[in-house]
Amino acid sequence: MSDETVLPFPGASGVPPKLVAAVEALLFAAGAPLRLDALASLLPDAHPDDIRAALGVLGARCGQEDRGIVLTEVAGGWQLRTDARFASEVAQLLRAKPVKLSRAAQEVLAIVAYEQPVTKQDVDHVRGVDSGATVKNLLQRGLIRVSGRREIPGRPLEYRTTRAFLQLLSLSELSDLPTLEEASQLDE
Amino acid sequence: MEATVEPAWTVHTEVFEGPLDLLLYLVQRDGIDLKRLQVARIADAYLEFLDHMRDMNLSLAGEYLVMAATLVHLKSLELLPRLPTPVDEDAPDPREEFARQLQSYARYREAADQLERRPWLGRDQFTRAEPESGEGELDAGLDAFGLLELYRELLAASEAPEPEVTFAHEVRLDLGTAAMALLDSLRAHGGHGELTALLSSLPNRAQRVVTFIGVLEMLRLGWIALEQRFHLAPIELSVVVPPEVSDPRALSGWVEEAEAG
């Protein structure tokens, strides 16, 4: 009852500490994002609302200045990640080359993300250049996938973004994308 | 950057992702208002830029020239008096179309910039496990080296002294027989089995070795499939060939060749 009054969830102070700890343990072990229903099935004694509240407590606690782990809501689940403040140190530790996308790849990805499903012709039209190689590259990296064919002459392939895309960009779902109107700059 | 010294001619075409990108750069540099459809200004700036590129003997991709032609056409519409043609009544102003395309591209580019500023997994943030690749459903860790490792483990496991067996007559182990025996045993178990379990159930080292090679051979022929659902998971074997197609001669012939050579 001391400093727990500022927690973002109304019932947060009522969350059993052991449940918060259990959620933390599961998220740590999982590595990949865990969905609420996965957590609920692993913690059958806890009410989903309490699990949600426990996530809130954990998230607030991880968000503290002196913590190096953040709780991120991503791809429909929750994931423990290292704080972006220590990106270079962690990358050095993991000997990982930071993920990079060319500007062309970022443009194509943005077009697919906002307009999906799109065909390569749609992308080419927006960008005014052939995007075939970039589309192929994004497919290989698993950031977009073939979702079907458009029922027009030639039946061109249609593309959508993947779960890996949500994970890469730390998005919980596609509706978390900033709206295009917000994004526009030249209109003002 | 260097571009601040002299006009922007130090910028090369490789910097641009295409003619639209170059146009946006010019629009921003010259403060052109797209809403006011200042196509003539845009066209002039663009053509001037292309001239500079040509002076510097830089080759231009075809798209840049197509865009130049489009712009000249649009500019001509602006300069020539309008003819009252009945066809044009419903058709949208091509200059508006052009401005819309440019604005639409600008919007996606800004969106791409916004995505770039988000915390990226594998660049800004990291997870305890390795970042998932693709859809993450079937992240198989099985490759030739994985199999080789398994083979070595198998041989090491069979280092334990084997019972002394004296054969009444010489037993000839051949790949065809071993492979067919494995296929039969798999089929008897619904066409599936676990590789390590199958191999370690064999009585001696020689049979394991021959059967393992048989597995590789059948894999090569596409008779069986190996699957590992996740890293360090058991390797599962499944028969994919119908009985009438799995002719042992395809295997034993290979053995004869190997023995002859």
Written description of the protein model:
- The complex is a heterodimer of chains A (188) and B (261).
- Helix content of chain A is 45%, strand content 13%.
- Chain A has nine helices and five strands.
- Chain A has helices spanning 17-30, 36-42, 48-62, 87-94, 103-115, 120-127, 132-140, 163-168, 180-183; strands at residues 34-35, 69-74, 77-82, 144-149, 157-161.
- Chain A has a three-stranded antiparallel beta sheet with strand order 1-3-2. In chain A, strands 4-5 form a two-stranded antiparallel ribbon.
- In chain A, helix 5 packs across helix 7.
- Chain A is elongated and about 60 Å long.
- Mean pLDDT of chain A is 86; it is low at 1-7 and 183-188.
- Chain B has 261 residues and is mostly helical.
- Chain B is built from nine helices and three strands, in the order H-H-H-H-H-H-E-H-H-E-E-H.
- Chain B has helices at residues 19-30, 39-55, 62-79, 94-117, 144-157, 175-188, 195-200, 205-221, 248-260; strands at residues 192-194, 224-228, 235-239.
- Chain B has a three-stranded antiparallel beta sheet with strand order 1-3-2.
- In chain B, a hairpin with a 6-residue loop joins strand 2 and strand 3.
- In chain B, helix 2 packs antiparallel against helix 3, helix 6 packs across helix 8 (205-221) and helix 6 packs antiparallel against helix 9.
- Residues 1-11, 131-140 and 255-261 of chain B have low confidence and may be disordered.
- At the A-B interface, strand 2, strand 3, helix 4, helix 5 and helix 6 of A face helix 1 and helix 4 of B.
How many individual β-strands of chain B?
3
The number of helices of chain B is: 9
* Helical fraction of chain B: 40-55%
Structural class of chain A: alpha+beta
Short structural summary:
With 188 residues, chain A is an alpha+beta fold.
List keywords for this structure.
heterodimer; A: 188 residues; alpha+beta; 5 strands; elongated; disordered N terminus; B: mainly alpha; 3 strands; 52% helix; disordered C terminus
